[in-house]
Structure formats: C-alpha cells, structure tokens
Amino acid sequence: MHILLTNDDGVLAPGLLALVKPLNKLGKVSIIAPSRNWSASGHVKTMHRPLRVWETHLADGTLANTCDGAPSDCVALGILGLIEKPIDLVVSGINPHANIGHDVTYSSTVMAAMEAAIAGIPGIAVSLDSSHMHQDPLDSAPAAEVAYTLIQQIMQGEHSAHMLLNINIPYQPLENIRGVEITRQGTRVYNDELECRVDPRGKKYYWIGGNEPSGLDDPGTEFWALSKNYVSITPLKLDLTANELIPDFTDLNLKLA
C-alpha cells in the first residue's frame, strides 16, 4: 500500500512526525506537506500562481516534500503526478486539536482528506482532542498508534474509493481510551468575539478571538464519544445537498416572472 501523508500544521509539526513510523508498517509512505501552518483555512486550491516544492527532512531524518501551497494543494500535487507510484490512501494529520461538528468546513486537515476523496482515493483525517489552552508540547504517539491500528483494519475491509473519514482521538494514555464509536457530525458552539485595536499609526485592526468552542453533547455525536474517552470515527460525504428540503422549495413553484 502506498500512503500519501500530509497535514495542515506544516511539514515539521510533531503530529505528522508521529504518524510516519506507524504508517510505515502498512507500506510505503510519501510525504507532501505545507511549509507553514494553514489551520482553519478550509478547502483551498491555488490557481493564481505557481506552486513551489522542495525536499526537506523531518526531525528523525525522514525525507519529505514541502510545498508553499495549501494542504489541498499538497494532495493534488501528489495525485497529479509529483509522486510516481499510484496512491492508495491519503492520511492527513495528526491535528493537535479536534475537528468536530462545524469545524470540518473550516479544517484544512479534513479538507486535505476530502481532496483525495474527490479524486477517488480514500482520505482519512486524524485529529487529537486536546484543549486549545494546553501549553506544554503534546504527546501524539498514543494517537498515532490508535490511528495505525484503525487504518490497518479499515483498509483491509470493504470501502469506497471516495471514502472520507474524520477520526478524532481523545488526548489520553492508551489505557484510558475505552474503544471506538462510529459517530455522526455534531453541533459546534462557537464563542467568537471581535476585538478592535489601534496600531502605532492610529489605524484600526481586528482580531477574531474568544473563548474555546464547545459543543452539544448529543448521544451518537463526536462530542459525546470524546467526552466518554472513545475514539470517534465520522464518515463524511462530498454531497452537501439538503435532500429533505427539496420538496419544500419545489412546492413553492418558483418562477422568474
């Protein structure tokens, strides 16, 4: 199996490094990851300028490619020929914070996996449910072992070429993780605030900030699973159509005149 590994935190992020050794047990791992952090950038594809790619080395000496584009660009480059051997799976992560509920529309981690699914290659996003207030370096090794164990089983089973999975792992020692739940997308509650400041030249500028987001702890959602120390696996799909609303608008018999 040939795995393309990427992330949205930058090629030198510890979460990506943590995945390299476990995934190597599954087959060949090629790395194309962005040169900088693209967190919360969504599904970006660079069309207005050329992309630059160069080789670098991770902290353990592993050879990797890095790109000045977005995570989605990294995946597109690999799929379109930067990597010669056909790609069987794209893994994106490990993101240091959970991508749950409405986060998936913002998350470049998830959108890199979606870029693979669009191209007919299974994509799996992996995130760690650590607090945004956590100050010390994160230990991603347990999450990497969990990801390896689950990916091995998933790829051995039947799956669609357009499979898109969003995996969130509790930030806990392995012995504290209770198991796995297949979940649905929950509801994120954001606590955003707008802060206006003035620069030294007297001009206003703005920060969008606020307290750490929360979520509704509905049974069967990622929030519920993570709160009980279960790994959450949420199957996602590319079709965003609200099919249940189509009859409502059809009944309006909308006209242009």
Set out the fold topology.
Elements: E1 2-6, H1 14-24, E2 28-34, E3 53-57, E4 63-67, H2 71-82, E5 89-95, H3 103-106, H4 108-118, E6 123-129, H5 141-156, E7 164-170, E8 179-182, E9 188-198, E10 204-215, H6 222-227, E11 230-236, H7 246-251
Parallel strand pairs: 1-2, 1-5, 2-4, 5-6, 6-7, 8-11
Antiparallel strand pairs: 3-4, 7-11, 9-10
- Please give the CATH class: Alpha Beta
Q: Radius of gyration in whole Å, from Cα?
A: 19 Å
According to DSSP, the number of beta strands is 11
CATH architecture: 3-Layer(aba) Sandwich
Mean pLDDT across the residues is: 95
Describe this structure in words.
- The protein has helices at residues 14-24, 71-82, 103-106, 108-118, 141-156, 222-227, 246-251, and strands spanning 2-6, 28-34, 53-57, 63-67, 89-95, 123-129, 164-170, 179-182, 188-198, 204-215, 230-236.
- By secondary structure, the chain is α/β, with parallel strands linked by helices.
- The chain has a single domain (2-188, 216-251), classed as 3-Layer(aba) Sandwich (Stationary-phase Survival Protein Sure Homolog, Chain: A), CATH 3.40.1210.10.
- The strands form two sheets. A nine-stranded mixed β-sheet has the order 3-4-2-1-5-6-7-11-8, with helices on both faces.
- The longest helix has 16 residues, at 141-156.
